[in-house]
Structures are given as structure tokens and as C-alpha cells.
Amino acid sequence: AVPARADGQGNTGEAIIHADDHPENWLSYGRTYSEQRYSPLDQINRSNVGDLKLAWYYTLDTNRGQEATPLVVDGIMYATTNWSKMEALDAATGKLLWQYDPKVPGNIADKGCCDTVNRGAGYWNGKVFWGTFDGRLVAADAKTGKKVWEVNTIPADASLGKQRSYTVDGAVRVAKGLVLIGNGGSEFGARGFVSAFDAETGKLKWRFYTVPNNKNEPDHAVADNVLMSKAYKTWGPKGAWVRQGGGGTVWDSLVYDPVSDLIYLAVGNGSPWNYKYRSEGIGSNLFLGSIVALKPETGEYVWHFQATPMDQWDYTSVQQIMTLDMPVNGEMRHVIWHAPKNGFFYVLDAKTGEFLAGKNYVYQNWANGLDPLTGRPIYNPDGLYTLTGKFWYGIPGPLGAHNFMGMAYSPKTHLVYLPAHQIPFGYKNQVGGFKPHPDAWNVGLDMTKNGLPDTPEARTAYIKDLHGWLLAWDPVKMETVWKIDHKGPWNGGVLATGGDLLFQGLANGEFHAYDATNGSDLYKFDAQSGIIASPMTYSVNGKQYVAVEVGWGGIYPISMGGVGRTSGWTVNHSYIAVFSLDGKAKLPALNNRGFLPVKPPAQYDQKVVDNGYFQYQTYCQTCHGDNGEGAGMLPDLRWAGAIRHQDAFYNVVGRGALTAYGMDRFDTSMTPDEIEAIRQYLIKRANDTYQREVDARKNDKDIPENPTLGINP
Ligand SMILES: O=C(O)c1cc(C(=O)O)c2c(n1)C(=O)C(=O)c1cc(C(=O)O)[nH]c1-2
Ligand SMILES: [Ca+2]
User: Fold this and answer.
1) Which residues contact 699 (CB under 8 A, 6 or more apart)?
2) Of 182, 208, 164, nearest to 119 (Cα)?
3) C-alpha 599 to ligand 2 mean position (Å)
4) Which residues contact 542 (CB under 8 A, 6 or more apart)?
5) Which of 543, 567, 546, 544 is nearest to 557 (CA)?
6) Intra-chain end-to-end CA distance of the chain, in Å
7) By alpha-carbon position, which residue is closest to atom 24 of ligand 1?
8) In angstroms, rounded to a whole number, what is the distance separating the alpha carbons of residues 600 and 687?
9) To which H or E segment does residue 167 belong?
10) ipTM of this model?
């Protein structure tokens, strides 16, 4: 029987709830409120997918990470792109109907941790809504692209100090006439919150803070009661959170469930990460690493489930929330499925938050399992590195076992298709207690200790630990039924269809269709750039299309350094790719292996290189890559012309010559000598690695970071 649903949805809400009655559309981020990323369309199926062809492509003007799932409403595609731009296209032809550039200032890029991405728009009653990286929410007329309203989602009093940082890159969801939006910033200093705006007027309806007020005072907001009575006492009253906000940003999943009539916030990590420094090493720190359920009309607290108490690994629970009915001990229950960063798959009762089951979906080393009654982790004491003070090689690392990439569920196979990965990380306390650096990640860690030493042994060992998989997970048995081993981590999200197909784009620039029943590879397309977004499908005039945004980026390639190229050269060419069975489009031939490095100047000052390394790892690493090496998206500074001259380098790094392109100025964070030390260090790195980069490009079969190639012998 179809469960009773709440009313007050309006036409769009009813259309999203009854999405299967008009499968030609894709009206909400995960298609339906249940975010299963399954479409019943089956014109493209296992028997013909081998003939899939490019129907059209639309080149984007931002060659950075593209993470959005486009919407399709009655033949019009709404695709958001990097730098928070919107493209409205004829979904059958790719012809541009209108576009909207909210003109996000370039120097804002380093106010967010993980690339100036955008994950998608919401649609409601003739309007489209999306967030901008500088914190705004835009509502535009879906037909004309004219702005209807715009609000700043970040209240002035949310910024309590210099390190505070709020960026908006998550997909907007709309339910019951409310536009729901969160934000990011916990790597810098932020106090997370979610806002609900009236879709017609942009008027704020409610705002829910996910962590307590630092003085345990009322914010005169809807969370006051639960924060003051329940959450505050789970924090050390004198920890660094008091200055840094505590974190708990809701930067990805934020869903409405029409069956339980609740909104679920998927809450992020602590700010700073370091639990000892953040919270004096005491308390579970509610609501970090949790799902929090609220009443949609008012934002009132209903229940929470904390997957990662005492977070110190950046184990956000922001990852996708899926709702559906499943048998639990022989009885049908309405549940939440959730595979957060921490490596465990959770089944929760959607109405009450009761923990029903949990099991690790990949190898992890921070917990020895979950308490079967409460779902609370049984910690591996060594994993609590902020308390031991020792170095910890954590699996998962801060990029999680699963990140923003969509997982899909097929009601035909009863399997969840989970884009999982293994990306270990070296955690170690910041020396001398918590010390924030303006314009840098402020996580309370020694940022040189997560860096990889450039020795063949260290690189080879680390690369062996990098993995990317597509898991076919059975949530009843809580086990992997089969899996596909990808070349490396950071592959795109998954779409499941009624044609018994799975679609997934990969870090190595391939777009695949797999058999949903057994994982057989049925189709491969060379997309010429890494894909991290989740595909979607729709139809126009009875013809089915499959679409995906192409564009390598997000946190992995910007922070990882050279080892971020384990899947391939991963050059960024950003475009929207749309496939059909009778497509006739063809991509132009493109350089897909990066440019030949320019021989660097030979001279550098060995005396300042060590300090240059510290400064680089503190201020530059998280965007330009570990140890001065890029991984295919932002400029690889070893080959940048600016490192050749002290003045040129200072103009860029100190004075902001390239702010329009996303490079902030750092003269308020570093002295000229420190900036010069970075330049000397980069010249050294360029010299140390020049020959191996040249040699890697001579090899036309393989990839630069393959340890078997003799490039990292
Ligand atoms: O703590 C935060 O506020 C925050 C924000 C974001 C973001 O806004 O994209 C990411 C993360 N954390 C994060 O931990 C993470 O792994 C991540 C990956 C990405 C991405 O788009 O590639 N964003 C984010
Ligand atoms: Ca984070």
C-alpha cells in the first residue's frame, strides 16, 4: 500500500512525489524526494546500450570541477556549473535558452575548501533556485532566466571572527513551498546552519543551527531549545570551537521525506577537526557527524542520530540520504539509508531515527565495529589521534569512503550502487596547540604530516593504498554482492535505470554503462576529462537521453598532489555530455594528457626551502596540491611562469594579480619573505621532478603515477 503523505505540496511537490507518472522529467536533485537516483526509463537498456552515442554536448566556460546533476523540466535542462553559473538548454538539442552568471568574486575561491563547485538547482512552480559560492540564493524565472528574487543566506551575525567562512555549493531542494539551503566552511571556522526560504518571496521562514551557541545563549532561532538543553553539554566549554564555530556545516545532503513528513539535515565535521583542541577532548559534540530530523513548516527538532561522535577525521555525515521501505526482521519499515564518509552503511527508522543496522561497506581502521543496539562506534583507541598525540594513518581519510558522488538504488535488483573509494590520510596534531592561519585551512593539524615524502618507497606504498570501486551493496544482508574495481579513487556518481543499467563517469575520463544485475561493462565513451558528477536521464518527444556534466575537480585533484593522477592524466575539459541511441555529435580532438613542463630555472636557495615547504603546505597545498604537484585542474605551480621572478610571484601571491581567476591575495597572511620562500621551494620541486614529468609524457599507454612504470621506480 502507498503510505499516506502530507499535503500542502502544490503542483510541483505532487509532481516530484509522483515522479513515476512523468518519467520524462527529472525535477529534483536525486530525481525524487527519496533521492534514489533511479529512473524507470528503459528505452536504453542492456540490449542496445552498446549503440549509445553522443547526441549533443555543450561546452562550459569554467574548466574546473563540475559536480551538478542537471534538472529537466518539460524539455528544458537546468544545469548549474562551477562558479555557480546556470545554463538553461533545450534538452533535445543543447541549444542555449538562457544563462545566468551571478558573478561570484574570484578571490572567494579560497574561502571554501574544495573547488568552487555547485551541485545543482531546485525547481518549484515555474522558478529555478540555486546557491552561489559567496552565499547567495538566487530565484529565476524558469522560462526567461530573469531574476525573481535573491537573498544572502548568511546572516551578518554568523561571522563572529576573522576565520569564519561560509560558502554555498550544495544542491538546493524545495519542498512544501520552502527552499532549503545549507553551506560549507568547517575547514576554516564556521558554525553550521540550514535555512528555509519561501519559494515565492525569498522570505526567511526558519534557520536551524547545527551546533550550540558558544556562550550557550539563545540565538532566537528554532534550534535554541535543543541546543541549550541537549547539545551544549556535549562540548568542552573552553575548546577552540568557541572561536572557530564548531563546524557542523550541511554542505551536501538535505532532504525532505513526504512519507515521514520530516526534513533530514546531513551534518558535517567539527571546526577545527582536532577534537582535543576543539572540545578539550571531551563530549560527543552534537550535532557533528549526525542526521538531524526537523519539522518542515517550522524547523523544529524531532530526532537525531550521531554516526561519528568526537569527530576528528573530517567524517562528515553530509553524504546522501535515501528514504524507502524495506523489510527489517520480516516487517516492512520506512527507513533511511546512509553511507557517510566514515565507511559504515546505516539503516535508520525514518520516523524516529532508531538505529536498525550498520556495517562497514569498505575497509576502515578507526572503529572496531558498531554497538549493535545504539550504532555508536566502538573506537580503535589508536584512531583517536588527537588524544594519543601520535601520528595516525587513517582509513578512510578526510575525503571519506564515500563523498558527494550520488549512490543509486534499483528497485528491480534491490541493490544500492555505491561509488566508494579508499584515500588514506596522515593525521597529526598541530604543534603547540591550536593556531589559526588566516586564509588557510584551520583544522588543528600539522599540515606537513599529511604530505607525502617524495621518495619512491613512500609514493609506491601510498599509491597501492588508493582505490576506487563501484559497490553493489545489499542493504538487507549488509554485504557487497559484487564490485567493480576502478583504476583509482574519485569517480563520479551513479544512475540506475529501468533498463537494468548503471551509468557512471570515471576519474580516468571514461563514461560507462554497466549491467545492474552483475556489473558487466556494456558501454564505454572517452569523455576526454575526469568525471565526478552524477548522471541523470530524461526523455523528450519519446526519446530517452542520458546526461552527465564532465569536468575533473573537487577536493581530490586540488589537494592530493601528483598521486591524484593515478587514474589518468585527468585534464579538465568541462562540458555537458548528452547521449542517445541515435546521436550524431562528435567531440573535437583534444589534448588529454596535460602540457609538457617548462624547464625550470636551476637556482634556488636551499636555506629557505624548508620554511617554503611549511608555508606551502599551510597555505597552498589544499588547492595546488601536496608537495607542489598539481593533479590536472588548478595550475601546477612547478611550471608556472611566475615562479621565475620574485616580483612576478609576489604580484600574484602577495598582491592578487590573478584574483579574477580565483587566486586570492595572501599579503595579510604571509610576509614577503615567506612568500619568497614558497617560490624557492617550488623551483626546487620543479627541478626535482622535471625529468620524471617529461618521461611520463613519452609513455603513450599509461599514466604518470603508475608505480610500475619506472616513473616512480
Ligand atoms: O566542512 C565543510 O564545510 C565542507 C564543505 C565542503 C564543500 O562545501 O564542498 C566539502 C567538505 N567539507 C568536505 O569535507 C569534503 O570532503 C568535500 C569534498 C568536496 C568536493 O566538492 O569535492 N566538497 C567538500
Ligand atoms: Ca569538511
Assistant:
1) 709, 711
2) 182
3) 37
4) none
5) 567
6) 61
7) 114
8) 6
9) none
10) 0.99
